[in-house]
Amino acid sequence: MGLCDSWASEKRRIDPAQEAIYQRKAQEAAAGGGPLLNAEAEALCIDKAALCDQVKAAEAATQQVWQDIEIKRVKAKADIRKATTAAQMHAIHKILRTE
C-alpha cells in the first residue's frame, strides 16, 4: 500500500519554495490582493482584481486535481485490502500507475 502513497506523492510533487509562493498568492487573492499580487499585477500591467481571479481559478483547479489523486489513492488502497492474491494487488497498483 505504500506504493499507492508513493504514486500520489509523485503526482502531487511540486517544489516546496514554489508551493509556498502559490499558497501565499492564494491567500492574497482570497483577501483581494496583497504585496505579492499587487507587485505582480503592476509588473504584468494587468488589473489586480483580474489577477486575483486568475489565481483563485488556478488554485481551484489545483485543489481539484489533488482531490482526484487522493480519491484514487484511497480507492486503490481499499481495493488492495480486499484483494486475495498478490497478483490482484499488483494489478491494482499497475492500473493506478497508468492513470
Provide a quick synopsis of the model:
By secondary structure, the protein is mostly helical. 85% of the residues lie in helices and 0% in strands. The chain has one domain (2-98).
Notes on the protein architecture:
The protein has 99 residues and is an all-alpha fold. The chain has one domain. It is 85% helix and 0% strand. It is built from 5 helices and no strands. The protein has helices at 2-12, 16-30, 35-44, 48-82, 86-98. Helix 2 crosses helix 4 and helix 4 (48-82) packs antiparallel against helix 5 (86-98). 13% of the residues are buried.
Rg is 19 Å
Order of helices and strands: HHHHH
Structural class: mainly alpha
- Determine the fraction of residues in helical runs and give it as a percent range: over 70%
Distance between the termini: 17 Å
Which keywords apply here?
single chain, about 100 residues, mainly alpha, about 85% helix
Summarize the SSE layout with pairings.
Elements: H1 2-12, H2 16-30, H3 35-44, H4 48-82, H5 86-98
Helix pairs in contact: 1-4, 2-4, 4-5
